[in-house]
Automatic annotation (TrEMBL):
Belongs to the MscL family. It comes from Nocardia macrotermitis. GO terms for molecular function: mechanosensitive monoatomic ion channel activity. The chain crosses the membrane at residues 12-34, 66-90. Pfam families: MscL. It comes from the Bacteria. The keyword Transmembrane applies. It is a multi-pass membrane protein. This is Large-conductance mechanosensitive channel.
Amino acid sequence: MLKGFKDFLFRGNVIDLAVAVVMGTAFVAIVTAFTDGIVKPIIEIFGGTGDLGLGFRIVADKPATYVALGPIITAAINFVIIAAVVYFLLVLPASRAKKRWGKSDAQTENELLTEIRDLLAEGNKSSGGRHES
């Protein structure tokens, strides 16, 4: 049982996944600091004069009904920044590298059907042309 666990831990993709999670967490912290320090104050310019920032109250006399729009906008900007970095620095270069240096395993339908036909023809020749049912 421990050998199986050890094998699982030392697989290359598990270690790569752990590194990716740690790096992703660190990157999220950087983007969050950027949006909290720069983007959020810019968004708050458009808010009211109160300390609550950009948002509105559902019921005017109840502070508990305040809907804060600033954190929602900040989270959306965080998401867009992270998605853009992941796409442009990881996904796009990886797909270009795969196109350039990766070998194509994809076959067209005609190539696949031709290969199946040839294999069936070879099978029929080796069995003497008889079919067993």
